[in-house]
Write a structure and sequence with these properties.
This protein is mainly alpha-helical and 285 residues long. The chain is built from nine helices and no strands.
Length: 285
């Protein structure tokens, strides 16, 4: 019976493949990393839900703000606001633009931090609850929106649209079109196609790298947590499983502590690149 149970148990590859499958419009089938025809419902749910949580936290901070001695919550939010404001002031020199871009950068930082922090939950916690709620032991669910390329590229595309908006707002439509064809190599008509191609490549490269950087780091972190979770389940199928189970606790704790730094760093990098790219839209060649 034990042999039959072990044979029927999923392999490590099955476990990881199952945990990398979204709850999406394909049902229980696994989609490729890039599939524009698929809607990942879990990514939509968690990203929108955590976005609303971000708005609520920032609203609560504004509502409870006082000129008296601030509490820990207000002090933490004020430090964060000052940090973002200082970064925005050093990159975007237009005070009018900063009135929108600085709060945007703050929202982006907090939102991405919350989405990244979902990686700190136990790997099987929410998926198992989802399976119990749906009465389907094979139901799939991924809870880290930033480990989904469609989410991170969607955010970077939003930054691209803001860059295009500020290019037109600051330089005017005619001025921006002139820049597209005359920078970076000069205004000679022979160079217009080359200049335009270089500008398009620059916009595309910044957008793709902006989204891919966040996705790659969070996807890799998610995989590490899955591998550590496999160590914890090895006691059922291995004679040395108790040692792996202990290693699971130690490795999981160490990686979770280190991953907090990654979560904060990736949120900060995405926020800073947002400020840098929008700031570049204010500058002429």
């Amino acid at each position: 019976m034990a042999t039959e149970h072990a044979a029927a148990a999923p392999t490590a590859g099955d476990y990881i493949a199952h945990h990398l499958t979204h709850f999406n419009s394909l049902g229980e089938k696994q989609s490729s990393i890039i599939d524009w025809s698929v809607v990942n419902y879990d990514t939509l749910f968690y990203s929108v839900g955590l976005g609303l949580l971000t708005v609520f936290v920032l609203w609560l901070a504004a509502r409870k703000a006082t000129s008296d001695v601030p509490g820990r919550f207000q002090s933490g939010v004020e430090m964060l606001i000052e940090m973002v404001a200082d970064q925005a002031k050093g990159i975007i020199h237009s005070a009018e633009s900063r009135r929108f871009v600085a709060p945007l950068a703050l929202t982006v930082f907090v939102w991405i931090f919350f989405m990244n922090a979902m990686d700190l939950l136990p790997v099987d916690l929410l998926p198992r609850l989802w399976q119990a709620a749906t009465h389907n032991p094979h139901a799939t669910l991924r809870v880290v929106p930033t480990a989904d390329l469609s989410a991170t590229l969607g955010m970077s595309t939003g930054v691209l649209l803001l860059c295009l908006y500020y290019n037109i707002k600051i330089k005017g439509a005619a001025g921006w079109v002139h820049e597209l064809f005359t920078a970076p190599f000069g205004s000679h008509p022979v160079l217009w196609p080359v200049n335009f191609l270089m500008q398009v490549i620059e916009f595309l490269a910044k957008t793709v790298s902006h989204g891919m950087r966040l996705f790659g780091n969070m996807y890799a972190g998610e995989l590490v947590f899955m591998l550590i979770a496999l160590m914890g389940g090895a006691w059922a199928v291995s004679t040395t499983g108790i040692l792996l189970a202990i290693g699971h606790v130690l490795a999981g704790t160490a990686w979770a502590i280190f991953h907090i730094l990654i979560i904060l760093l990736q949120a900060f990098i995405f926020m800073m690149l947002t400020l840098v790219y929008i700031g570049q839209a204010h500058e002429g060649h």
